[in-house]
Amino acid sequence: MTTETELLPPDAPGLTRAADLLRAGALVALPTETVYGLAGDARNDRAVAAIFESKGRPQFNPLIVHVGSLAEAEAIAEFSPQARAIAAAFWPGPLTLVLPVRADAGISELVTAGHNTVAIRMPEHPVARALLTEFGGPLAAPSANPSGKISPTTAGHVLDGLGGRIAAVIDGGPCAVGVESTILSLDPPRMLRPGGLPAEVLEEALGAPLELGGNAEAPNAPGQLSSHYAPGAAVRLGAREVGADEVWIGFGPGCAGADLSLSPTEDLVEAAANLFSALRAADQLAAERRARGIAVAPIPEHGLGRAINDRLRRAAAPRP
Ligand code: TXA
Ligand code: MG
Fold first, then answer.
1. Which residues surround ligand 2, an ion (CB under 5 A)?
2. Of 39, 63, 161, 232, which is most buried by a Cβ count within 10 Å?
């Protein structure tokens, strides 16, 4: 299917148009504080099926449900007292909770891909919140990129990957966080994906160390590092210097001569916000120069560095 993808402004008429499209079962990409999401009505089987179809996403990989209020979340998932406390502390924000799905949740079974749990989050971005209010229901939304490719942090990135395949994208400017939400399951607390809310912050709130693991990017292949976030060029990690024929993505003041820098001042928040744009820009440079690959400077494994390194390891993983 090819249609012209509408580029909508983040104002009242743009949001009204977006909500009308969603009610008709069409797909709309929307800005969140983490990355752009490809939204469809979570209660509409055809809309949810169209999300998988337009991304080329394997059907066994379940989607995150986005809600505008705690009441909506509680109508979909079972909240324990601990889940309620975590939601109260970190929502709206870059945290997804995996909770038991309610029998009367009313969402498409394609969203959970047959699991008895549902991944749910309340985004903080004002445009996402305004759209959820205007639409008045839950939105299923994976990142708005073709499956396996680099996640989008601008409306332009969305159009590059999915233009002509989706009804519209709302332009809310660049995403402030820049990496996807942290995914947490409870009983016991386990971080399924490092993301925009640092593990240390969650551990402090829980008062206990987090178990790590599961593999949220491939729930049926625990522990396997699957290729994801992949640029066209090969990626080499931990690069303290650049090789001949490589494009170098630096981090910190020690990377003079880097082609791009995630953060000249070693600021991990800035680095996360720049990550996906930098990978795209490096990929373009590599193609222009016919370079051998992309080399990325080492990133410390704390705070948002964990999410950055997770995405980089997947970008560097062997391709299928
Ligand atoms: O920041 C984000 O989380 C973005 C924005 C758009 O909200 N969304 C996002 O969605 O990253 P997506 O589909 O690219 O990643 C969702 C992840 C997948 O790795 C999926 O396996 C996992 O969530 N997931 C969904 N439901 C799950 C469940 N019931 N149990 C375990 N993992 C689940
Ligand atoms: Mg994704």
1. 143
2. 39
Burial letters 180-191, b for 16+ CB under 10 A, else e: bbbbbbbeebeb
Amino acid residing at 11: D
- Measured by CA distance, the residue closest to atom 24 of ligand 1 is 62
Predicted confidence (pLDDT) per residue in 221-278, tens digit? 434 457 788 888 999 999 999 988 999 999 999 888 899 999 999 999 999 999 999 9
Dist CA 146 CA 229 (whole Å): 10
CA of 143 to the centre of ligand 2 (A): 4
ipTM, interface predicted TM-score of the complex: 0.98
Ligand nearest to the CA of 142: 1
In CATH, the architecture of 6-212 is Alpha-Beta Complex (3.90)
Indicate which residue's Cα is closest to atom 32 of ligand 1. 216
Count other Cβ atoms within 10 Å, centred on residue 205: 14
Radius of gyration for the alpha carbons in the chain, expressed in angstroms and rounded: 19
For residue 103, the 8-state DSSP code is: T
Residues of the chain with pLDDT under 70: 1-2, 214-225
Whether 155 and 171 have beta carbons less than 8 Å apart is answered as yes
**Domain ranges across the chain:** 6-212, 234-316
Decide the pairing of beta strands 293-296 and 234-236.
parallel
pLDDT tens track for 164-185: 999 999 999 999 999 999 999 9
Ligand 1 environment, Cβ below 6 A: 32, 34-35, 37, 61-64, 96, 98, 112, 115, 117-119, 141-143, 180-181, 183, 192, 216-217, 219
- Atom index in ligand 1 nearest the CA of residue 38 equals 6
